Amino acid sequence: MDPRTVTGRLTRLGTLVLAVDGRRWALVGRGASVSPSPSAEQHRVLEQAGPGTAAAGGLMDTLLNDGALALMRDWHTRLADAGAQLR
Asked: Which residue has the higher pLDDT, 65 or 80?
């Protein structure tokens, strides 16, 4: 998939809302029973990227939200860097 076809935004509450091929997705940065486990390829890409902004989410985000907001900010940055049309 061409990342330039992805549009979306990061809400004030930390939800990354994306639209891909006419379908809308709301990513909240926390796992759930309906969330698939990350693939080996996803783990490899994150390991190669090294420490990201997700680690610098701040004490309150870590304590109250398990770092979900920082994780979504990190993904917003990565997707935008790949060419996604995000605001």
From this structure: 80
3-class secondary structure per residue, the chain: CCHHHCEEEECCCCCEEEEECCEEEEECCCCCCCCCCCCHHHHHHHHHHCCCHHHHCCHHHHHHHCCHHHHHHHHHHHHHHCCCEEC
Q: How far is CA 22 from CA 7, 19, 41, in A?
A: 10, 6, 26
Q: Identify the pLDDT of residue 44.
A: 74
Which has more pLDDT, 65 or 51?
A: 65
